[in-house]
Automatic annotation (TrEMBL):
InterPro entries: JAB_dom_prok, JAMM/MPN+_dom, MPN, VirAsm_ModProt. The keyword Zinc applies. Residues 2-129 form the MPN domain. GO terms for biological process: proteolysis. Gene3D superfamilies: Cytidine Deaminase, domain 2. PANTHER family: CYSO-CYSTEINE PEPTIDASE. This is M67 family metallopeptidase. Keywords: Hydrolase, Metal-binding, Metalloprotease, Protease, Zinc. The keyword Hydrolase applies.
Length: 137
């Protein structure tokens, strides 16, 4: 189970809407307690591909985010990106690029701007996808 605050959800949503028509991306850091993963900080990163079909995180921003996580005692819980024109599920490219089976992959669909859909996924070494329970409180 992945738990995030309403404020962090709004932060991700606003970042992704601002990035349109391109995909937006970022990292999530936090803590694991009693088997639950709690997002404590959202890192908004630049999609250096500037594309509506794929993303690459700015390496300098990525490094700064990881350093900040370490300084705050957080661990990398995963990443997020938006799908401006497709559903909230991993594409074949998303699965191919999912290198870490220990993290969650959050995908925010903005196909219908009035009804954005955020889902969290786990992608294992064999590229099998399972939906992770996501709680926004």
């Amino acid at each position: 189970m992945l738990v995030m605050t309403k404020a962090d959800y709004e932060k991700i949503l606003e970042h992704c809407k601002k990035g349109l028509p391109n995909e937006s991306c970022g990292l999530i850091g936090g803590v694991v307690e009693d088997g639950k993963r709690y997002i404590k900080k959202v890192y908004l990163l630049t999609n250096i591909d500037a594309s509506n079909e794929h993303f690459s995180m700015d390496p300098k921003e990525q490094l700064a985010a990881v350093k900040d996580m370490r300084a705050n005692g957080y661990q990398l819980l995963g990443n997020f990106h938006s799908h401006p024109e497709s559903p909230s599920r991993p594409s074949e490219e998303d699965k191919r690029l999912a290198y870490d089976s220990k993290v969650n992959y959050l995908i925010l669909s903005l196909m219908d701007l009035e009804n954005p859909v955020l889902n969290a996924f786990h992608i294992d070494e064999e590229k099998n996808v399972t939906r992770e329970e996501l709680v926004i409180e």
